[in-house]
Write a structure and sequence with these properties.
The protein is α/β, with parallel strands linked by helices and about 325 residues long. Helix content is about 45%, strand content about 20%. The chain contains 11 helices and 11 strands. The strands form 3 sheets. Strands 3, 4, 5, 6, 9, 10 and 11 form a 7-stranded mixed sheet that branches. The chain has a two-stranded antiparallel ribbon with strand order 1-2.
Length: about 325
């Protein structure tokens, strides 16, 4: 009989539990079976590993030596097993790819890119208002890919094996009621918007509200923010003429709403693609970025306001591929 990893795990479990009965429960075996296993290990190692006492067991000097070596070896073995398992999952074609997204124009393009890379996989999608929980899900391997976004000074930090690939940093535009006097101009000065009623997103861990507030504070005046809303509800408040707001440059104008660049481009938003570095999409990362980047440029061309802005600023908002 040779010493095996399971024997070392059993010895460590007994030491941590301080009792054969409790250790057996933790290992999901019986106390007699664990006692028999311990006796076999002690015969292999040539001595008693634990001293039996009324309150439980304590390691002998030989037991302390074995525990010291086992606790040094087992984490490395566990890490090796975890790494090889992830590598095996990465090599295997998955049955399902889970994608998460914030509110951004890249979700459809990413879904198409994933389908092109892994045509046999089922693709599922779920959306969130904030990138933080999506990044948590990527790190925990509850998602295979995600569309994320952040602002200057509030950049996302990779963690838990998540790989972040910034695609483009674009300007933030003004969102106005179509009948607003400022909608007649080619650009809007942020200073002239501050005195309006604003619709703003609720404070969240993506820090958009904080970023907007910091930029507005530079005007030296405090905006009125009676409306707290996101998505379609925010757009509806603007469409009804109740408020002004901000939006991504690729926002598609709808009847009653006008999009205009801000003079001097004082605010930016960064689009990010992300996946797990040990996940099934990692080998296809460059191709996915290329496909999504091409889709983003098509969205830019389909947005007349943003297309005109890009023509006037040829060196800005470059897509990274």
């Amino acid at each position: 009989m040779e010493l095996e990893l399971r024997h070392l795990r059993a010895v460590c479990a007994i030491a941590e539990a301080g009792s054969l009965t409790r250790a057996a429960a933790a290992l999901r075996t019986t106390q007699p079976a664990l006692s028999a296993q311990l006796r076999r290990v002690e015969r292999m190692l040539g001595g008693t590993l634990f001293e039996r006492r009324p309150a439980g067991v304590v390691p002998t000097s030989l037991g302390e030596l074995v525990l010291h070596r086992a606790r040094a070896v087992l984490p490395g073995i566990d890490g090796l097993l975890a790494d090889t398992a992830r590598a095996a999952r990465r090599r295997a074609a998955p049955d399902r790819v889970r994608i998460g997204s914030v509110g951004a124009p890249l979700l459809g393009r990413l879904t198409l890119a994933v389908r092109a890379s892994l045509p046999s996989a089922e693709v599922t999608v779920r959306c969130r208002n904030s990138p933080a929980p999506l990044l948590d899900d990527l790190a925990a391997e509850r998602l295979e890919a995600a569309v994320l976004g952040d602002h200057p000074g509030h950049e996302l930090v990779p963690r838990g094996g998540a790989e972040l690939r910034p695609l483009v940093t674009e300007p933030v535009f003004a969102l106005l009621p179509s009948g607003h006097p400022l909608a007649a101009g080619e650009e809007v000065d942020l200073d002239r918007l501050v005195d309006e009623d604003w619709a703003v997103p609720r404070p969240d861990d993506d820090r958009t509200r904080e970023y907007w507030s910091r930029a507005l504070a530079l005007t030296g005046r405090d905006p009125r923010t009676p409306y707290e809303a996101e998505g379609r509800q925010l757009v509806e408040l603007v469409r009804c003429g109740l408020a002004v707001s901000l939006c991504q440059a690729t926002f598609t104008e709808v009847p009653g709403v006008t999009v205009r660049p801000l003079t001097g481009n004082p605010l930016q938003y960064r689009h990010i693609l992300a996946w797990h570095r040990d996940g099934p999409l990692a080998p296809h990362g460059d191709d996915i970025v290329r496909r999504v980047g091409e889709g983003y440029l098509a969205s830019c061309a389909a947005s007349p306001v943003y297309a005109r802005w890009r023509a006037r600023h040829p060196g800005a908002a470059r897509v990274v591929t």
